[in-house]
Write a structure and sequence with these properties.
Strand content: 15-25%
Distance between the termini: 79 Å
Number of domains: 3
Strand order of the largest sheet: 8-11-12-13
Order of helices and strands: EHHEHEHHEEEEHHHHHEEEEEHEHH
Structural class: alpha+beta
Radius of gyration: 24 Å
Domain DUF559: 232-290
Low-confidence stretches: none
Shape: elongated
InterPro entries: DUF559, Restrct_endonuc-II-like
Pfam family, one: DUF559
Protein name: DUF559 domain-containing protein
Number of helices: 13
Number of strands: 13
């Protein structure tokens, strides 16, 4: 038996249960399986996958208009990388400006923050904290290396979401809020050339250990073809290259390309050291290994 038709005003859109009841929709109709009831008090007349954007849009229907999705929720909606455990957390972070009370409801984590009008933007149809403000908020919930990776993404040279100076000014005005110490430490480590979060983490490991600062994704010229090669990390003085090998390198085609690339670099007198995710889990051993290689190449 098919459920009765909804009034035209409620077709193909989100609406509150209160609004529907007020307009004559029965409680039984609101419990029908063709309506998305992911968020308490809200229905959507087209059942969709309960992905992040969809859930955020549903919550927007019941949250105050001044609310902003923030912290890791904003980061994910914008595209800023966050740790895997954050992506698995179904709860949504929502911030309001003080002195308003932080929102409280099942499925959300409410925050009361010092927000200004510049801290809010519309992204993919929902209100979120700006990339700069989101980076500030991430400092209170992610590891230091993850904070650097997020900052790298925000200022990446190809399509920057903000300039380094904007982050610097924001940190300066952040005062002593939670995470401020890590923000100040992260600023000088940011790079607009990092291509992935693991590369950012590797750079943090090297910097914290006091190793020389490598060039990041800096072009080297292939003397045979004239084409540019862009190693992940280049220690020019030592003629040592560090290459992070992610899972995408495991395809047959990529494996062959990597082998040829490495052979050409070594023929030019470079020492190529390949690093993977397992190495990042043992930073002390990795640092000792890199230090040994650099000492031998002086």
């Amino acid at each position: 038996m098919h459920p009765e038709s909804l009034p035209p005003a409620f077709v193909d859109r989100r609406f509150s249960v209160r609004e529907a009841l007020h307009n004559g929709v029965s409680p039984g109709r609101l419990r029908a399986s063709d309506l998305d009831a992911t968020v308490w008090g809200v229905r959507a007349s087209t059942v969709a996958d309960a992905d992040l954007l969809h859930r955020a849009a549903l919550f927007s229907s019941r949250l105050p208009t001044e609310s902003l999705f923030s912290h890791s929720t904003a980061a994910r909606l914008i595209g800023i990388p966050v740790p895997w455990w954050s992506e698995r957390d179904a709860r949504l972070h929502v911030s309001v400006a003080a002195p308003r009370r932080a929102p409280h409801a099942a499925g959300i984590i409410g925050h009361r923050s010092r927000l200004t009008e510049r801290d809010g933007v519309v992204m993919r149809g929902v209100r979120v904290t700006s990339p700069v403000r989101t980076w500030l908020d991430l400092a209170s919930m992610v590891r230091f290396a993850d904070l650097v990776a997020a900052g790298d993404y925000i200022i990446h040279w190809r399509l920057p979401l903000a300039e380094r100076d904007e982050l610097s000014r924001a940190v300066e005005s952040f005062g002593r809020a939670r995470g401020a110490i890590n923000l100040r430490k992260a600023l000088p480590l940011l790079s607009d050339r990092a291509e992935s979060p693991p590369e950012s983490e590797l750079r943090v490991i090297l910097a914290v250990a006091g190793l020389p600062s490598p060039d990041i994704n800096h072009a080297l010229v292939d003397t045979d073809t004239g084409r540019h090669l862009r190693p992940d990390f280049t220690f020019r003085e030592h003629r040592v290259i560090l290459e992070y090998q992610g899972d995408y390198h495991r395809t047959r085609e990529q494996w062959r390309k990597d082998m040829t690339r490495r052979s050409k670099l070594e023929a030019e007198g470079w020492y190529v050291m390949e690093i993977n995710a397992d190495d990042l889990r043992s930073p002390e051993e990795l640092v000792a290994r890199v230090r040994t290689v650099l000492a031998r190449r002086r």
